[in-house]
From TrEMBL:
This is PCI domain-containing protein. Keywords: Signalosome. The lineage of its organism: Eukaryota, Viridiplantae, Streptophyta, Embryophyta, Tracheophyta. One of its GO terms (cellular component) is COP9 signalosome. Belongs to the CSN7/EIF3M family. CSN7 subfamily.
Length: 177
């Protein structure tokens, strides 16, 4: 099973679960579970559900903002807005840092790593070779660490959700292609 098929199955699972919930607190719980799931890296379909969007301007709106963060944001975005978002559990912190890697964060400071060795360990252990993220396939990124040039050459990265402002650029790129 490839990454796209696994993602599709997980998205369908969480869309069905979230759609079936009418209570805002129960919906918030499903959103926390989805953003914590070790193999789910796309959230736009969940974010588009009418009952999820109805969380806007309610006492549970922070969970909608949290889902938007996982769909489009980075660890730095969370740190900048932590006072208005739910506190993340360790699995969510790991996931958001992995998603930040997928956006090809420019500096290791965005991931809150203190040195190059810590960044290498995170890339290797939590992104490249993490067992169980995707069955029969290792990791969310593949590439080579070049210690001499102090860079990571990306050969493959799992996709992220498009931010609404990226859609026009994506359409233009596909048209040009």
């Amino acid at each position: 099973m490839d990454i796209e098929q696994r993602q599709s199955e997980l998205i369908d699972h969480f869309v069905k679960r979230a759609s079936a919930v009418s209570d805002a607190a129960a919906l918030a719980s499903v959103l926390v579970e989805a953003t914590s799931h070790p193999s789910l890296f796309a959230f736009s379909e969940i974010l588009a559900l009418p009952n999820v969007l109805q969380l806007e301007a309610t006492e549970n709106s922070a969970f909608l903002d949290m889902l938007r963060l996982f769909a489009h944001g980075t660890w730095g975005d969370y740190k900048s807005n932590a006072d208005r978002l739910p506190q993340l559990i360790p699995d969510q912190i790991l996931k958001l840092k992995q998603l930040t890697v997928l956006t090809l964060a420019e500096t290791h400071k965005e991931l809150d790593v203190t040195n190059v060795r810590e960044l290498e360990d995170f890339l290797i252990n939590e992104c490249m070779y993490a067992v169980g993220i995707i069955p029969y396939q290792r990791g969310i990124v593949r590439g080579k660490l070049d210690q001499l040039r102090r860079c990571f050459e990306v050969q493959f990265a799992a996709g992220r959700d498009l931010r609404p402002d990226q859609l026009g650029n994506m359409i233009q790129t596909l048209s040009n292609w």
